[in-house]
Every structure is written in C-alpha cells, then in structure tokens.
Specification:
The protein has 2 domains: 5-89; 124-271, no CATH class. It is built from 10 helices and no strands. It has helices at 5-12, 17-24, 33-43, 46-89, 102-158, 164-170, 172-202, 209-230, 235-299, 305-324. α5 packs parallel to α9. The longest helix is centred in the C-terminal third of the chain and has 65 residues, at 235-299. It is rod-shaped. It starts with a helix and ends with a helix.
Length: 325
C-alpha cells in the first residue's frame, strides 16, 4: 500500500509523524481500533506504529471521559428540568393537564413579586399602627400614674387635719349625736341612691341624657371593636389592644373609687357641719340657762340671815348643777 505524501515528508525531517497524526486525525470508534492498528502496522515501521497507537488510545480515552462528563451534565440538567417541571406542575396558575410553560411561570413570578410588595406595604402600615398603639399605651400608663397619685392625695386628705376634731369626738354627747347623724345620713344616702336608680330605670330612653351617653359609648366601643378586628391578624397588636382595654377598665375602676371617696368626704363634711351646728346650739342654750340662773339669783331678796345663807348656797348649787347639765 502506498504511503501518503505527509508520511514521506515527516520521515525526511526526522520522523515527526506522531505530532501531525495527533493534530489531523479525529478519534475513531472502539470497534474500528483493530483494523486501524493493522492498517498502521502495514504502512509504517514498528516504532512509529506503537507511538501512534498509544496517542490514539490516549485521545480515545480522553474523548470517552469527556463524553461521560457531558452525559453526566446532561443528565443533571434533565433532572433539574424535571424537578422544576414537577414543582410547577401542581401549582394553581398552571392549567390542568398542560406542561408548565416558561412564560406562564414568569408571569406567576411577577405576580408573586407584586403581591410581595403589597404585603410589605401592609406590614409597614401595621408597624405604624403598632407604634401609634404603643404611644397611646404609654399615655394611658401616665394617666394611671397620675390617678394613683390623686388617690393617694385624697386618702391623705381624709385623715383628721388637727386634734380639734378628735377632741370634739371625745365628748360623749357629741360622739353619740355624731354617730346618730352619721347613721341617719347613711340611710338617707341609701334611699336617695335607690330612688335615683329607680328614676333612671323608669326614664331610660334613647332620647334621655343617660340613653344618649350610653348610645355614644356603645358607638365608640363598636368603632374600637371594628378597628381591633381589622388588626387581629397581628398577634402583638391584638395583645396591645387587650392590654389597653384592661387599662381602660382599671381607669374606670379608679374613677369609680375616687368618686366614692369624694362622696364619702362630702358626707363627712356634712356630718361635721351638723355636729358643729348642734354644738353651737347647745352652747347657746347653756348660755341662756346661765343668764336665766343669774337673773333668778339676782331677783330674789334675802328675808333672814340664816335663811339667806341657806338659800344662797342652794341657789349656787342649782346654778352649778345647771351648768354641769
């Protein structure tokens, strides 16, 4: 078999045929390897044929490795594609029985992004509302502190301001009269309260003053309940609303206690005023008795010496007894 011109040229310049074969020849399949070896052995010397075979084997091995790598990559890409297809297959935006198209997926992703932005805006609004609730909660706490301070002041004012009231209450007659007046005032207060409750129950209509106040309060509570219901999705805001409602109830309780203390103070002031009036009346009566006794002693004239002394002593005793009374 005739050799190629390239083979003759390479033999003339030092036998560098292996390098040209490597650059010009492409890898052959495995089943043609034996035929190719026989063809090379027929054309070339034993040394050159061995080099060519080794080079071709290395090239074939490298090609097989590259092919295996590419097959693995292709398989991974197919697995990834199948994974994405199965992931989007059961989504609501993919029609049933159809393959998920890239355009549909892109539109769905854009919709998700827009919904994410709207949710972020809602979250920002909720955070602002939360901050407003925190400010209101701090104000309510400050009001509660002020009310507690006012209650402490009122309790301190309920104590006797001086020892004069204590001295007056130590007198048995004044104490008894004060106790009687206090019990009578309590009974009157109870009767007045019952009558007021009966009157309010009889006259309670939507046009009355109490009815209007109650309706306004109900509307306010309804609005607050609606606002709290709108923000019920946020757990922390709901918790703050519950705390605020509890603080409102505590404020109402404190206001009621303060009103009771004020009523009790007014009752005590009325009792003390009545006691002072009674004491003044009794003092005036005692002064009138003293004046009458003096007039009686001055109007009588002594008839005899012994009788005069006796009557004078008896009159003095009577005056002392009346003063004591």
């Amino acid at each position: 078999m005739a050799s190629s011109p390239n083979l003759d040229d390479d033999d003339d310049f030092g036998g560098d045929y292996a390098g040209n074969i490597t650059r010009n020849k492409r890898p052959r399949p495995l089943d043609d390897d034996e035929d190719f070896k026989e063809h090379v052995e027929e054309e070339h010397a034993p040394g050159a044929a061995t080099g060519i075979v080794l080079i071709l084997r290395d090239s074939l091995k490298k090609s097989e490795e590259d092919c295996k790598v590419y097959q693995d990559k292709c398989k991974q890409a197919e697995d990834e594609l199948e994974k994405w297809r199965s992931a989007f297959q059961n989504e609501s935006f993919i029609p049933a029985g159809t393959c998920p198209e890239p355009g549909i997926v892109v539109i769905a992703v854009q919709n998700l992004r827009s919904s994410e932005e709207s949710l972020k805006e809602q979250l920002e609004k909720a955070r602002k509302k939360e901050a407003a609730f925190i400010v209101n909660f701090a104000k309510r706490e400050q009001e509660i502190t002020e009310l507690k301070a006012a209650v402490r002041d009122l309790k301190s004012q309920l104590k006797p301001p001086s020892l004069k009231a204590r001295r007056l209450l130590l007198d048995p007659a004044i104490h008894e009269e004060f106790t009687r007046l206090k019990s009578a005032a309590e009974e009157k207060d109870k009767k007045i309260k019952e009558l007021e409750e009966n009157l309010a129950a009889v006259n309670f209509t939507t046009q009355s003053r109490m009815g209007k106040l109650l309706m306004a309060k109900c509307r306010t509570l309804q609005e607050e309940n609606d606002e709290i219901g709108m923000m019920a999705s946020e757990g922390k805001i709901h918790e703050l609303g519950m705390k605020l409602k509890l603080q409102k109830n505590q404020n109402l309780e404190l206001r009621r206690q303060i009103q009771e203390l004020l009523d009790y103070m007014e009752m005590l002031e009325e009792g003390v005023g009545k006691s002072n009036e009674l004491v003044n009346t009794m003092k005036k009566q005692l002064e009138d008795k003293d004046i009458e006794a003096k007039k009686m002693t001055e109007g009588k004239k002594p008839k005899s010496g012994g009788k005069e002394d006796k009557k004078t002593s008896e009159g003095g005793n009577n005056v002392d007894a009346s003063k004591a009374n």
